[in-house]
Amino acid sequence: SSSSPIVASLGRYAGTNAAVFVLDRVVEAPPAASTISTYLSDAGWASQTWTWTGVAGILRVVVLIKEGSDPAINDAASALVEALRTAGFNAAKGDWPADWRRYRGALDGPQTPAPTDAPIRIVIGAKAASAPR
After folding, report:
1. pLDDT tens digits for 49-68?
2. Helices and strands in the chain, H and E counts
3. Contact, 22 vs 52, CB < 8 A?
């Protein structure tokens, strides 16, 4: 499949926990989340998806790392950003602005694990896909 180089690059970090937050008001976010979740699953990552309501103004696919995570998490997040860019996503690394356990709005998804447990968050906002070149 066309995703194999991406999956291969992420496979080195198999077992990494990631939470995918999908902005509910962004039409293109759910299909982007579905594609990204498939890459993660194929690469052996442990990811779950939540729908994030009551939040707007987040652009791109932002990969966030929990403060104090070990270097392997940072490496996995960097590899993820590169893989997503290769796959045509407008991806960037960012910093969670406040306490990792706090967020505005509401998250709808699995009850366990909690959405605040994963050391990596992938927030899918508006303009998640890069403009066609």
Report:
1. 999 999 988 999 999 999 98
2. 3, 6
3. yes
* Helix boundaries (H) for the chain: 4-11, 29-42, 71-86
- 91 near 122, Cβ under 8 Å? no
Tell me the backbone φ, ψ of residue 57, rounded to 5 degrees: 85, 10
Which tokens sit at 4? 């194999």
CA distances in angstroms from 8 to 21, 76, 78, 92, 130, listed in the order given? 23, 13, 14, 20, 22
Cα dihedral across residues 13, 28, 88, 128: positive or negative: negative
User: How many angstroms separate the CA atoms of 104 and 20, rounded?
Assistant: 16
CA dihedral sign, ordered 118, 8, 86, 78: positive
Residue 25, SS3?
Answer: coil
Tokens of residue 93, six digits: 């690394």
DSSP code, position 12: T
pLDDT tens by residue, 63-107: 999 998 999 999 999 999 999 999 999 999 988 877 999 999 999
pTM, full prediction: 0.92
